[in-house]
Amino acid sequence: YIETLWYLLKQLYEKGLLYKGYSIQPYSPAAGTGLSTHELNQPGCYKNVKDTTVVAQFKVVRNEKSEFLFKNIDSDLHIVAWTTTPWTLPSNTALAVGKNIKYLKVKTFNQYTFKPITVILAKDRFLYYFSEKNKELNLSDYKSGDKSIPYQIVEEYSGKQFAEVKYEQLIPWQQPTDGDAFKIVCADFVTTEDGTGIVHIAPSFGADDFRTAKLNGLGSLTLVSKQGKFIEGCGDYSGKFVKNEYADNLPADAESVDVELAIMLKKENKAFKVEKYEHSYPHCWRTDKPILYYPLDSWFIKTTAFKDRMLELNKTINWKPQSTGTGRFGQWLENLVDWNLSRSRFWGTPLPIWATEDKAEMKCIGSLTELK
């Protein structure tokens, strides 16, 4: 069996279809291995969960590049970005906007500290965060603790105007050493369907984030270990699991790291809104525990080289029911990515790749005879 797999892998290697890559991949801290997209699509792997989400306030640095944003305001200026994974905020190194999206600058007050603030968010998301009934309220009449918070729209911008504007690091535990950081960039995946129309970028923990970082020369901060814990150098959070499910001895009602971070950000006037949010999140089919998206070295088969051909062949199959071919399987083909073949397990078929220490020479064997 193993020798047959070696033979097949060698055929793929010689055709340039087997390669080693570094990318953000689904990873199971509980199982200690990366997962393929096929494994994530197993029935029941996506579960509806209620997570603590944070709209974080990123304070804009006032300098020549950002001076135009401070026109007609007399308070600190914040870019606000929403995340369903607050544990990734310490690893933030950029914020992404849509270059053609319209944004508003709004004077208001922070609902937790009652301090005057000015925030920037997408025009299309404005009414989600600001009540229409409060538009007649005067900023000067606001008193700490008032439930109805006044606001004033000051100015409108296009996303492209924010490019290269710098902001202060949100949680300054560690600094990236492999590139630029803490600036606003434009990205084509930013939408106004949810959140604030501004995306928090943590290159180590998201595929879009990773691509954005490479395109813009951004550094990264991988502050979480493969065990799912914050590494040393993260203050009181060092050694804490980013998801309670990874810990075996926590009480059922234990506060999550996400909640702890949200409370910290509230106290520091860095949280604009904190709320529970129900969404679908992938789980490991082996352990039934949440996965992370994590930077890994892996071996891949270049399945994308055959995507168009597979889509054509799929149309010739007489599926029963037909919805399978056009639905689950067809959609998987439409969104095909290269197959993450390798696993970090002591059992299973060993990959027959041999390389010198400097990787100058590499060989793939296809049989036991070649190995001898």
Please give a quick description of this structure:
18% of the residues lie in helices and 26% in strands. It is α+β, with helices and mostly antiparallel strands and 372 residues long.
Give a verbal description of the structure.
The protein is of the alpha+beta class and 372 residues long. It folds into two domains: 2-46 and 292-371, Rossmann fold (3-Layer(aba) Sandwich), CATH 3.40.50; 49-282, Isoleucyl-tRNA Synthetase, domain 2, CATH 3.90.740. It is built from nine helices and 15 strands. It has helices spanning 2-14, 37-40, 126-129, 207-216, 257-267, 307-316, 322-326, 328-334, 368-371; strands at residues 18-28, 33-34, 46-59, 77-83, 94-97, 102-109, 116-122, 152-158, 183-186, 198-201, 271-282, 292-301, 339-340, 353-355, 362-364. A six-stranded mixed sheet has the order 8-6-7-4-3-11, with helices on one face. Strands 2-1-12-13 form a four-stranded antiparallel sheet. Strand 14 (353-355) and strand 15 form a beta hairpin. It is elongated, with a radius of gyration of 24 Å. The model has no long low-confidence stretch (mean pLDDT 93).
Key features?
372 residues, alpha+beta, Rossmann fold, Isoleucyl-tRNA Synthetase, domain 2, 2 domains, 6-stranded mixed β-sheet, 4-stranded antiparallel β-sheet, 15 strands, elongated
Could you outline the blueprint of secondary structure elements for this entry?
Blueprint: H1 2-14, E1 18-28, E2 33-34, H2 37-40, E3 46-59, E4 77-83, E5 94-97, E6 102-109, E7 116-122, H3 126-129, E8 152-158, E9 183-186, E10 198-201, H4 207-216, H5 257-267, E11 271-282, E12 292-301, H6 307-316, H7 322-326, H8 328-334, E13 339-340, E14 353-355, E15 362-364, H9 368-371
Parallel strand pairs: 4-7, 5-9
Antiparallel strand pairs: 1-2, 1-12, 3-4, 3-11, 5-10, 6-7, 6-8, 12-13, 14-15
